[in-house]
Amino acid sequence: MRRKVVLADDEPLIVKGLSKLIPWNDYELDLVAFAYDGKELLDAIAQHQPDIVVSDISMPHFTGIDMIKEMKRLELPVKVIFISAYQEFSYAKDAVAYGAVDYLVKPVNKSELEEVVRKAISLLQEEDEEGKRRHKLEQLERKAGEDEIGSWLKQLTEGTLSLHSDAYQTLQEMMAGELRTVSVIQVDPKGNDHERWPAQTRKLVEFAIHNVVQESLLAYGAGYLFLKNGNYTVVLDHDEPDMPKLLADTLIRNIDGFLKLKVSIGIGGSKRELTQLKTSCEEAEYALGMTYFYGMNRTLSYRLPEQRKDSEHKLFALQLDMIKAMIGQQWETVLAKLEELMTVIESATIGNRKLAVSAAFSSILHIAQEVKKSGANLPEGGFDIQHLQSRLEQYDSYVELSEGVREILQELYDRIDDRSGSKEKTLIAKLVAYIDEHYREDISLESVAAIAFMNPYYFSSFFKKHMKQNFKQYVTDLRMKHAIKLLASTDMMVYEIAEEVGYKNARHFSDMLPDSSGRKTAGCGWRQAASGRL
Q1: Using a CB cutoff of 8 Å and minimum separation of 24, what contacts does 354-363 make?
Q2: What is the pLDDT of residues 191-242, one digit of tens each?
C-alpha cells in the first residue's frame, strides 16, 4: 500500500536535501508536496491528506506545536516527524508529548531518517490493522443487531412476540414512522432455474439478495429484513404512503440489474400500529400468491378479494354444455365453453391457487365421468386420478393451468369412438414425439401416462403393444443412441454427456453404455472410449 509524504522547512535547500536523502519509493512513499512555512504546510496537509509529514519544528506563521494541535482538532491521522536544531531539544520533546512520532537533530543523516520513517510506517500499519479489526467487529455487532431485530419482527409477524417483552418495547422505540408495511420477496420459479441450484449456490444467492436489499433500503427510511418461509420479508417504517411500492419497484430493478434474477414482491397494507404487522404480513403473502393469476416479475399490492356469487351454478351449466359437445363431437364448441369455464373458475378462486387447481380437477373429472356414463365409446384403461391432479398442480400460472386443462380434454376427446384404431395410432405418435422431445428430463412412465390420460398400468400395456418394447427400454435406448452420437462426434466429458441425455448419475450412465458390438459390457469399444473421458 503506497502512502503520501509532505516535506516542510523554511530553507528550500533542506527540503531538497530531504527529498534525495533516502529512497522514498523503496518504502512505497510518494512525495506529494513541499512547504516552506507553517501556513503552506497546513494548506498542503488539507489538500493532499498525507500519511507522513517531515517538518522543521520552528517555521514562520505556525510552530510545530501549533501544527499538531490543529491536526488533532481536525482529527487528521497524520504521523509527524520533526527536525530541530540543538537548542530546540526541549521544545521537540514537548512536541513528541503532543503526538509527534519522533524528532531528528540537524543536520539529518540517512540512517536516522530511515529509522524514524520505518517507525512511522509501522505505526500506520498497526493503526490500519486496528481499524480493520474495529470495522470487522462493528460489522459483526451490526449484523448481530440486525439478526436480533429481524428475529423479533419475525416473531411479531407470526404473532408469537409478547407485547410486554423488552423486545417489543425496543421495536416501538426504534420504529418512529407513522406507518409500517410488510413486503415479501420471492425468487420467481420461471426464468431463474433456481430449482437446480446446489446448496452452496443458494446460500451465495441469498447473501447477494440480502446485500442488494439492504443497500436499496438506505434510500427509503428505516427498513428491516429477515427470512421467513424461504422468502425475504421486509418491514418498512415510513411516513409517505407510496414508499412501499416505490421500494418494491426499486428492488425488482436492482436485483435484476445486479444479480440477473427475476423476483416478485407482494406488498401488505400499511398499518399504524406495530401490533398489526402480522396482518400486513399475511396480506403481503396473499398478494404474492396473486402472481399465479397475474404473472411474475412484478409488484402486487394487497386488495380485498371481491365477493363472487352464483359461481357454482355457472360452472355446472358450462360443464353440462361441454359434456354435450364432447359426446356430439363438436370440438369448437368444447373450446368455446372451456374458455368460459376457466374464466368463471378464475373469478371464483382468484387469490387461491389450491382452490383453482381443485376446481379445474373437479371439472375434468366430472366431464370425463359423464361422457363415459353417456355411452360414448372410450377405450379401456381410464385415467389415473392421482397423476391427473399432480399434473395440474405442477403449472406455475393460471394461464399454464388453462392450457393444461385444454390438452387433457383434447386427449379425452381424441379417444372417443376409436373403433378403427386410427386415433390410437395418432395418440402413440404424439406420445413418441413428446418422449423424443423430453427424454433429457426426469421423464417417467407415470408422467407420460398422465399426458395420455391413462392409468400407468394400462399405459404400459398400450405402449408395448404399439412400440413392441416397454416404455423404460424405449427411453433408455433413445438416450443411449444420442449418447453414442455425442461420444463419437464431440469432446464432451462422460459426466457432461450423462447430464445432456438425462442421467444424473454419471457412473450409472457409463455402466449403461454398450460396447462397439451393441452389448452392455465393461469390455471395450464405447465403454473404453468413455473411460478415457471420465
Answers
A1: 356/292, 356/293, 356/398, 356/401, 357/389, 357/392, 357/393, 357/401, 359/315, 360/392, 360/401, 360/405, 361/388, 361/389, 361/392, 363/315, 363/319, 363/405
A2: 665 555 566 777 788 888 888 998 888 887 688 889 888 889 999 999 999 9
The CATH superfamily holding the domain 175-301 is: Reverse transcriptase/Diguanylate cyclase domain (3.30.70.270)
Between 185-189, 337-341, 502-506, the lowest mean confidence (pLDDT) is in: 502-506
**Which numeric CATH code is attached to 3-129?**
3.40.50.2300
pLDDT in tens, 51-78: 999 998 888 888 777 888 888 888 888 9
Q: Which amino acid is at 96?
A: V
CA distance 405 to 408: 5
Do strands 79-84 and 52-56 pair parallel, antiparallel, or not at all (unpaired)? parallel
Annotated domain spans of the chain: 3-129, 175-301, 311-464, 475-531
Tell me 305's DSSP state: P
* CA dist list (Å): 80 to 8, 22, 128, 172, 322: 11, 17, 17, 49, 92
Look up the pTM and report it.
0.53
Listing DSSP states for 84-111 in one string gives E-GGGHHHHHHHHHTT-SEEEESSPPHH
Q: Is 302 exposed, middle or buried (0-12, 13-18, 19+ CB in 10 A)?
A: buried
pLDDT at 140 over 60: no
* Cell numbers describing residue 120: 512511522
